[in-house]
Every structure is written in C-alpha cells, then in structure tokens.
Amino acid sequence: MKSNLDLVNECDSFPYPSSPGLYHAALSGLYTIVHNNGETSTPIGYLSESVFNRLAKVPISIKGELEVSRAKRTVSIFQHPTEEERSKAVAATAAYWRENKIFRVLDGWRSELYPVYGPGNELLWSVERSASPLFGVVTYGIHMTAFVRDEGASYGLKMWVPRRAKSKQTYSGMLDNTVAGGMATGEEPFECLVREADEEASLPADLVRGRATAHGTVTYIYVREQRAGGESGLVQPEVQYVYDLELPRDVEPKPKDGEVEEFYLWTIEEVQDAMAKGEFKPNCSMLVLDFFIRHGILTPENEQDFEEINRRIHRDLEFPGPHSDSR
Questions:
Q1: In terms of DSSP bridges, do strands 235-246 and 139-149 run parallel, antiparallel, or are they unpaired?
Q2: How far apart are CA 275 and CA 7, in angstroms?
Q3: Strands 113-117, 123-128: pairing kind
Q4: Per-residue pLDDT averaged across 4-11, rounded?
Q5: CA-CA distance, 242 to 244, in Å (whole number)?
Q6: What angle do CA 35, 38, 44 make, to 5 degrees?
C-alpha cells in the first residue's frame, strides 16, 4: 500500500536542489533550453541527452541556428525574430521527427498546440502537445473535483471519480479527477474547464460557470515513465489550475467523448483506499491530496508528512509563465 508521500514522490519525481547529489546527477544528463533576448538568458525547458543529439541532427533549414554551451550545458534554439517564425520552426522540427519516426512519444500526435512562455510571460512559441515533453517545457492544464454534500458520509461529502477509458494511449483504465484536460495556446483556464466539463462529463456550461470555484494551482516536475507513453525519462514540469464543483444530488457526470469509462460517487474512505492501491493517475493523486488539505481531510494531526506533501504539491518552478504571477 502506498503512503501519501509515496504518491507525491511518484509524480513530483525530479530531484530538488536540497538533495544536491541527486539534483546535480539529474542535471548532468540534461541540457537546459535558454531563451536569449539580448539582455538576459532565461531557462525555459530541459532536453535529455538523446533529444539534444537528435535535435542537433535536424537540418538548420528546418530548425534554425542551434547555439550550444557544453560547459554550461545550455542550448539556445528557436531564436527567430517573431513568435510566428519561432512556432513554425518548432512545428517543422516536430514534424521532421514524426515523419522520420524518431521518437515514440510522437505516435500520440494530437494536433493541439501548447504555449511556451518567455521571461515576461509573453508567448515565445507554441509546440505540438505530444512533442512538449521532448523539450521539457512547462505545460498547463485544468483539474476539477466534483463532489456532493452528504451528511451521512465522513467529512460530509462524497467525490465523483472517473475511470479512464481502456482505449486511452496513456494511463488507460486508471482513476482520474472528475474533469481534467490540457490548456491550448490562447485558452484561459476557466474556459478550458467549461469545455472539458462538457466534453468529458456532460456537465452543462451554465452549471459549471455558476458553481465552479477556483483554488489556485498544483505544480510539480514529473519524470515520465512507461505508463505516460513513449520515451521514459523525459522531464515534464506541469501547472494544473484547480477547481471544485459542488453538484446538486440530482446532477451526475456522464461520459461523453469516450475518454471516460464510467463515474463513481465515492466516500472519502473509498478514494483513499484506491489511492493507496495506486489506482489513480499519478498527477491526479496530487490533485486529490490538494482537495483533502483544503477540505480539512488531510491535516498535520493525521499525516506525519503533511508539511512536505503540502510544499511539494506547490513546487516552485524555475521556468517563466503565468503560474509565476501567483507565487
């Protein structure tokens, strides 16, 4: 059975500077992507050694100039004058890799664009969703927990928990948060929530707009493993915008777009049992822990690792982006 800290370790799996041996060992196998604006050099992502080697082999006519400092282990790439030009170079690079079947992670091509931000939180470039882990850039999503009040249940509530469809390319058949999805370039978190709530759970837009409440972000750095699909070991910093939705007892989420197999209305004890058995998608466990803390279910009195858990589900990320505004 997994402890709550085990669940955090499984998702927030990139070492911290406070563990210098592990941290420097991890960095020694990576190149940091930096964006140079003429005045400052800002880190925006991590490249593994294997991705760096493949990037170096992409023709300059496709990717543009590549500047490398092997001493500092930094890479400057996609330095074109405009966002449009930079995004085109990124798209051409990802397409080149896909056409030549370089990386398995691109087998999950989504034709969705994710944003990458610069030092002033400006949009630097966009990248195909499935290619984002190759560049180790921060990605953004929304996660919502729907619940109902129930005086007969522990803590006075029950949670709606979906099981991912067995046909999904990643984490098939695992448990998830009620509604979750990635944010595309130009999409605001709340509008993403409204869209995903309809697509995944058949929840009406007016209900979500009227009842959903925002609760900050959950942040972590995940090192991808086999269940994520494609190559293991890719570094994936993530920011999830957090929402709660108290539903009336006569409203039930229902699968719509095929990504969810079914929804369960579970007690806190049932959710905790499934978490301990490792049935939740790793990052979804982080969101559940955040929900438990905010609702007084997980406290310093009943969790010996409370302080570490609470700190690590809100990890400081060194890369720029809108998340830095809420630190």
A1: parallel
A2: 8
A3: antiparallel
A4: 98
A5: 7
A6: 10
Q: Which residue has the tokens 């803390």?
A: 293
Residue 109: CB atoms within 10 Å: 14
- What would the pLDDT profile of 39-79 be if each residue is shown by its tens digit? 889 999 999 999 999 999 999 999 999 999 999 999 999 99
* Dist. CA 220–CA 9, nearest whole Å: 10
Residue pointed to by tokens 């592990």: 22
Report CA Rg, the chain: 20
Q: What confidence category does residue 168 fall into, taking pLDDT thresholds of 50, 70 and 90?
A: confident
Phi, psi of 191 (to 5 degrees): -70, -35
3-class secondary structure for 88-104? HHHHHHHHHHHHCCCCH
Q: What is the largest CA-CA distance in the chain?
A: 66
Q: How far apart are CA 282 and CA 192, in angstroms?
A: 21
Confidence of residue 169 (pLDDT cuts 50, 70, 90): confident
Using CA atoms, how far apart are residues 240 and 23, in angstroms rounded to an integer? 24
Q: Are 157 and 146 in contact (CB under 8 A)?
A: no
Cα dihedral 272, 278, 279, 283 in deg (nearest 10): 90
pTM for this one?
0.95
Query: Exposed, middle or buried by CB within 10 Å (0-12, 13-18, 19+), for 261?
Result: middle
What is the 3-state composition of the chain as percent helix, strand, coil, each rounded to the nearest 5?
35, 25, 35
Q: Per-residue pLDDT for 203 more than 80? A: yes
| Tokens of residue 63, six digits | 């990717």
Terminal Cα distance for the chain, rounded: 34
pLDDT at residue 326 tops 70:
no
Per the CB < 8 A criterion, the answer to whether 12 and 313 are in contact is: yes
